[in-house]
Specification:
Distance between the termini: 26 Å
Shape: globular
CATH architecture of the largest domain: 3-Layer(aba) Sandwich
Order of helices and strands: HHEHEHEHEHEEEEEHEEHHEHHEH
Radius of gyration: 20 Å
Helix content: 40-55%
Structural class: alpha/beta
Largest sheet: 4 strands, mixed
CATH topology of the largest domain: Aspartate Aminotransferase, domain 2
Strand content: 5-15%
CATH class of the largest domain: Alpha Beta
Number of domains: 2
Strand order of the largest sheet: 1-9-8-5
Number of strands: 13
Oligomer: single chain
CATH superfamily of the largest domain: Type I PLP-dependent aspartate aminotransferase-like (Major domain)
C-alpha cells in the first residue's frame, strides 16, 4: 500500500503532462519561462488575491516574505512550537528570533490567545501554520496582530477554506509548498507566495532573482529562489484535476473519521473550516506498538512530528526546557499519520481502519 499514491495521478494526467513538458523543451526557457506567468495567474485567481509569486521551494516561500519585510537581528517572529522545522529555520537564518507558543489541543494549530501573550515591542511578524490541512483561527489572529504582518504557513493547506475563503488568501501573505507529497505537488521542489499587497509582491519578485530590478541592476539583497519552468508546467497539468482531488481528500478524510472515531482520537475540523487532509493524523497511546502492528500488516505510517521545535537540538535552551509546551509535547508523543491521498480506495481504507482497530485493542 502506498502512503501517498502519485502513480495513479500521473496516469490520469500523463498526456497533458507530457505535452506541457515537451513545450518547455521546445522553447528552451527553463528559468522563468512563460509557464511560470501562466501558473502565477491561475493560482492567484484560484486563491482570490492579486499576486502569486512562484518560487523554488516551500522554504523559500517562508523566507522571502520575511526578507521583504526587512526582518533581521533583534526582531522576533511568533510561531507555533509544533510544526516542521522550516517555519523556525527561515527566521533564524535572518538572525531574528523565533518565539514559540503552544497549540490548541483539538486542532493542533496555534492558540491565538497564546500569540497575544507573546507579542512584545520586538515582534515584527506572526507566522501561524495551517497544520495537517486546515487553517488556524486566522480571523482572531489577524485581529490580535493589530497591524503586525501575518504570514500563513500554508504548506499543508492549499485548497482549504475558512469561512468560504481559501487558505493563502486570508492574511498579509500566504506561503505554500509544492513538494511532491503536498496536496498540489510537483516533481521536485517548488512553492509560492500569495498577497494583495503590491509592494510586498514587488519586493518578493526582486528578491527571488538576486534582488534584481532589471537585468544586472540590483536594488535589494536577494537570493536565487526562481521556480524551474518544468516544475511550473507540471503544476499546470496537475492543477487541472486539483479541485476534484480536494473533494476526494475531504470525502476520504470524513470516511476515515466516521470509521475510526470510536477507536482513537480523529482529526477535529473547526466549524467554518474545511481540511484538504495533507495528512490524516490520529492520536494513539502506545504509538510504537500501533505503528509496528500496521507495518506488519503492510500499511505505511509516518509521524508528523516527533519533536516540538523547542526540543530540537538546534533550538534547545534553558529558557524553554522540556515541559514548557505541554500540549505540543503530548501531541508529539501520540500523533500518527495514516495513508492519505485522493485515490485511496475504500478497500485499502477499510484495511487501514481494521488494522488500526486491532492494534489499538492490542496496545490498550
Amino acid at each position: 500500500m502506498e502512503f501517498i499514491d502519485l502513480k495513479t495521478q500521473q496516469n490520469i494526467i500523463r498526456d497533458d503532462l507530457r505535452q506541457r513538458m515537451d513545450r518547455v523543451l521546445e522553447h528552451g526557457q527553463y528559468i522563468m519561462g512563460p509557464e511560470v506567468a501562466e501558473l502565477e495567474k491561475s493560482l492567484a485567481e484560484y486563491v482570490g488575491v492579486r499576486h502569486c509569486v512562484a518560487l523554488s521551494s516551500g522554504t523559500d516561500a517562508l523566507l522571502l516574505p520575511l526578507m521583504a519585510l526587512g526582518i533581521g537581528p533583534g526582531d522576533e517572529v511568533i510561531i507555533p512550537v509544533f510544526t516542521f522545522i522550516a517555519t523556525a529555520e527561515v527566521i533564524a537564518l535572518l538572525g531574528a528570533k523565533p518565539v514559540f507558543v503552544d497549540i490548541e489541543e483539538k486542532t493542533y494549530n496555534v492558540d491565538p490567545a497564546r500569540i497575544e501573550a507573546a507579542i512584545t515591542a520586538r515582534t515584527r511578524a506572526i507566522m501561524p501554520v495551517s497544520l495537517y490541512g486546515q487553517c488556524p483561527n486566522l480571523k482572531a489572529i489577524n485581529a490580535i496582530a493589530n497591524g503586525i504582518p501575518v504570514i500563513e504557513d500554508a504548506a499543508q493547506s492549499f485548497g482549504a477554506l475558512q469561512d468560504g475563503k481559501k487558505s493563502c488568501g486570508l492574511t498579509t501573505v500566504g506561503a505554500t509548498s509544492f513538494f511532491p507529497s503536498k496536496p498540489l505537488g510537483c516533481y521536485g521542489d517548488a512553492g509560492a507566495c500569495f498577497t494583495n499587497d503590491d509592494s510586498l509582491a514587488d519586493a518578493m519578485r526582486k528578491i527571488r532573482a538576486h534582488g534584481q530590478e532589471r537585468r544586472y541592476y540590483h536594488t535589494m539583497v536577494g537570493v536565487n529562489a526562481r521556480i524551474d519552468t518544468l516544475q511550473a508546467a507540471i503544476l499546470l497539468a496537475k492543477f487541472q484535476i486539483f479541485p476534484d482531488e480536494v473533494k476526494s481528500r475531504m470525502r476520504i478524510g470524513d470516511r476515515y473519521s466516521r470509521l475510526l472515531r470510536d477507536r482513537c482520537e480523529v482529526p477535529y475540523i473547526e466549524p467554518g473550516n474545511t481540511s484538504v487532509f495533507a495528512q490524516y493524523t490520529i492520536q494513539v497511546s502506545e504509538r510504537e506498538s500501533v505503528q509496528k502492528h500496521l507495518q506488519d500488516a503492510g500499511i505505511p505510517t509516518a509521524v508528523h512530528y516527533p519533536y516540538p521545535l523547542h526540543l530540537q537540538p538546534v533550538f534547545r535552551s534553558a529558557e524553554k526546557p522540556e515541559g514548557s509546551f505541554p500540549i505540543a509535547e503530548r501531541a508529539a508523543s501520540r500523533v500518527l499519520s495514516l495513508p492519505m491521498h485522493p485515490y485511496l480506495s475504500e478497500i485499502d481504507q477499510d484495511k487501514v481502519v481494521q488494522a488500526v482497530s486491532n492494534s489499538v485493542s492490542v496496545s490498550v
